Amino acid sequence: MNDNAILSEVRGHVGLLTVNRPKVHNALSTPVLLELEQAFIKLENNPEVRVIVFTGAGDKAFVAGGDLSEMVERDGIAHYQEFAEDIHRVFRRFEVSDKPTIAAVNGYALGGGTELLLSLDIRLLADSASLALPEIGLGVFPGAGGTQRMIRQVPACVARELMFTGRRFDAEEAVRIGLANRVLPQADLLDEALAMAAKIADKSPLVLKLMKRALRDGADMPMAAALAHEQAMIGLVFDTQDAHEGIAAFLEKRNPSFTGR
Ligand code: CO8
């Protein structure tokens, strides 16, 4: 077991989760994955926290994937299924969270590391970042949501090439194919991620929650139903104190102060 394998802190309205196993490039073993899940749930349940940032400890890796030493010790299909269940549940929880999430990718994001960032909302990459779905080379496939999220987030031919070859790609390429938002110097990455998180945290948490639900639910609906869903939410949004505050602040030429009500 790893002591402090997940570091969790709250800075203002921003929660910061750090995978802290630098000796193994922050690989996710089952206990570490479960610790990450619990730390995330705590931040989700903390009303002070409005945005959650993920990063890796050290300057080499975000997350170098599932823990291969643990995988080799697994015995029988039931164990793999158990791990698959855990990692799917945890990454899905991140994906459907009402709170916006940001990946600050500070190095290797391989296998489960790339799959982790695929389940987060915004991805900022250090210029040192190196991504891949290398599972094909290990005789397995990206089974932590990778096949399904990748194909939905980048053009299908690109997703297929990256999964079939397992090749690494750098931060510039990740941005070019639409998998990440921007590339930053490694030294600035965390500060920039926290600054972006703080800017988002200044907005109405209630509207962010409704917006995330509209995006999430609408993605699985036909366009007409998705638009109807959005339209139904408009009434909810305008009938909030935050909407009154935001519009009043604009008219009074001052900064709004949102409370999430
Ligand atoms: N798991 C366990 N240990 C790891 C991992 C990992 N994923 N990655 C690195 N390590 C360990 C190394 O074994 C090494 O340990 P030791 O010091 O005891 O020898 C230590 O970290 C340092 O690593 P290296 O010496 O290899 O460091 P380098 O700087 O030379 O290389 C790399 C860094 C490129 C990150 C290299 O370590 C590497 O290629 N790692 C493996 C990356 C990989 O293949 N990841 C995908 C794993 S599979 C996966 O994620 C699937 C998850 C979902 C499956 C769900 C279905 C059940």
UniProtKB/TrEMBL annotation:
InterPro entries: ClpP/crotonase-like_dom_sf, Enoyl-CoA_hydra/iso, Enoyl-CoA_hydra_C. CDD domains: crotonase-like. One of its GO terms (molecular function) is hydro-lyase activity. SUPFAM superfamilies: ClpP/crotonase. It holds the Pfam family ECH_1. It comes from the Bacteria. One of its GO terms (biological process) is fatty acid beta-oxidation. The keyword Lyase applies. Belongs to the enoyl-CoA hydratase/isomerase family. This is Short chain enoyl-CoA hydratase. It comes from Billgrantia gudaonensis.
